[in-house]
Amino acid sequence: MKTPSPPRSPWQLLYGGAHRLRERWYRQRSRFLPRPVISVGNLHWGGGGKTPLTAAIAAHLRDEGLAVCILSRGYAGKGRGVRVVSTGSGPLLGPRVAGDEPVLLAGELTGVAVVVGTDRWHAGRQALHRLEPAPDLFLLDDGFSHLALRRDLDLLVFPVADPFGGGRLFPGGRLREPMTAVARASAVILTGLTGLTGRAGAGLAASLRAYRFAGPGFASRTVSGRPVRIGGSRGELPPGTTVFLVSAVARPDSFTAGVRAQGYEILGELRYPDHHAYLPASLKQIEAAWKASGAATVLTTAKDRVKLLGHLGAPLAELPLRAEPEEAFWRWLDGEVERLLRSS
Fold first, then answer.
1. pTM for this structure?
2. Digit-coded pLDDT (tens) for 219-230
3. pLDDT reported for residue 180
4. C-alpha distances in angstroms, 122 versus 83, 97, 333?
5. CA distance 285 to 278
6. What domain range includes position 144?
7. Concatenated DSSP letters of 269-295
8. 36 and 48, same structural domain?
9. Any domain includes 73
10. How far apart are CA 28 and CA 31, in angstroms?
11. Which residues contact 140 (CB under 8 A, 6 or more apart)?
12. How many CB atoms lie within 10 A of CB 194?
């Protein structure tokens, strides 16, 4: 895996310098929570598979008997302050208040609490006081750049389709932080693989040594489940069913390819910006386009399903996705969590 060359344009150098100053400022001012904090994030703008990976890690730690609380910013949610999205029994708030990804996680993860707030230190403190049982540890979804909260493990995700984001910072590239930020990471994970190979994660780690990354590298494949009907008529969609695709995700091409690979006939598609709110005008556009296509159902992503369900006048189905990290990752993570719990 070829590592990108450092950017040389004046703007890229200036932007990179500003990030280094920000990192240095927070190094002296970040705050601690009295429980271990594990962050899952990436260097890219847009999706990299971090939310499915967060869900997989939360489920794994829950199954190990730990009380897990996910802390999320609640991006695109209109609520204010700290919001308890789930105490472990499903969503208590909708996506317009809490954000789409927290509501998705709350619906998928029985026995895992989800709390949102822009100040995740304050959200974590509130979770310790308001949740029963109190969390044994916290997971930060999309937390790598949230330097205000000190974390004990930083897991950094690199999507296999675009691992280095072109090697350039915004606005000329797709990186939100310089590549040198990987030095903060505890481990790196190559996501979005269709199969696991023994050297994929190690190859990623080796390619980042030039940027002072010193930790291990792992691989995680993304698995598409069989599309399922949502709402009144449940069950799997038979292969060959005609579908109209709707998505508001960072990488819609992956969604479309996953549907096509399972043998469904795509009669049309609408793509919206990531985290799109689906206001009435969008819903009317989807309904009209679906009817005109003649498709049997609208097929969407899990993240979009939480916003469309109950608001769309069309049959709705979802393509479920899950992350499956390699076994070496789970062995490493279990050892790190055991160490953190002993010392907390």
1. 0.91
2. 999 888 899 999
3. 87
4. 11, 18, 26
5. 10
6. 10-66+136-223+324-343
7. EEE--TT----HHHHHHHHHHHHHHT-
8. yes
9. no
10. 9
11. 37, 38, 39, 40, 41, 70, 71, 72, 120, 146, 149, 151
12. 11
